[in-house]
Amino acid sequence: MTARAAIVVGTLSCLAWPLVAAAAPHGPPPTMRGVVARVLDGHTLEVRIAGRTEVVRHIGIRTPSILDPIHGPEPYAQRASAAHVELVQGREVTLRPDGPTRDAAGRYLADVMLDDTLVAAELVRLGFAEVQTIPPHLQRRRHLLTLQARAQTDRVGLWADPDVWRFYRPARSGVLASRRTMSFFHVDDDKAYLEDSREPFESPEAAVAAGYVPSFEYAFHAERELRRSVAVASAAYPFAPYAGSAMRPATAPALPVALPRTDEPVGHIWRGGVFIPIRR
Q1: Which 8-state DSSP code applies to residue 72?
Q2: What is the pLDDT of residues 88-114, one digit of tens each?
């Protein structure tokens, strides 16, 4: 090869390298190992990693929202936090990111693994956490919901206290918005995954603030998600002390009048700015 040809080849190689580097995929974020320095609450912890401390938020769960009008949420939040401490305090854990690694508060989002145990799933199984699905973290939703239903039906952890069902407010899932139709979908709506251009939001309110409107079937799926919790409550406690209704003796009807109807609507119609369910 002549000197001139070598110079040309070298120049072309230098020009092509940035293009190859730009086209190369980034790949998933790496897993990290660290030691739990402190538990902050039922779903957040501090992990010491290579000389720095990360505030880590479990993916897919939260501490149940139980708003006792006299004692407030603190007694239940403290019990959830204590269960979290017992599981992980001072232990070595592995952090496995799944999608975006930071939330709006700057917390590191990850599946926290204790040996081969997913800590979030264990907290749900023990009855000290509930499922909260925030897109795009959707991978474990079905598994966690199964564990939650079992824990609630078996009355373990926080669910063992009958008063919980009087003041419990189930977590709502985030939504997936379509940039093509400018509408947002519930995470249980399969139509959301047919859209190529999607934007995740932590809540339907956040999607509305960004200019999106509910999809035609959003209200149906949101109602079904709430009704799932109501059905578990009535199965776990025949007197169904749910959503602020008065405690009733075991001989009372299984479902109080205040509970939603159990027959699923066949569809919804948009009237007066809200979706109204259509039933047979």
Answers
A1: B
A2: 999 999 999 988 899 989 999 999 999
CA gap 64, 155 in Å, rounded: 14
Alpha-carbon span 89 to 39, nearest angstrom: 7
For residues 211-239, give the mean pLDDT.
81
Asked whether residue 82 falls in the same domain as residue 155, the answer is: yes
Q: Is residue 20 part of a domain?
A: no
CA torsion, ordered 243, 249, 253, 254, to nearest 10 deg: 60
Q: Is 116 inside a domain boundary?
A: yes
pLDDT confidence of residue 162: 85
| pLDDT tens, position by position, 58-82 | 999 999 988 888 888 889 999 999 9
What is the residue range of 144's domain? Answer: 31-161
Write out the two tokens for 228: 């799932």
Interior CA angle at 156 toward 236 and 45, to 5°? 130
Count of positions (residues) in the chain: 280
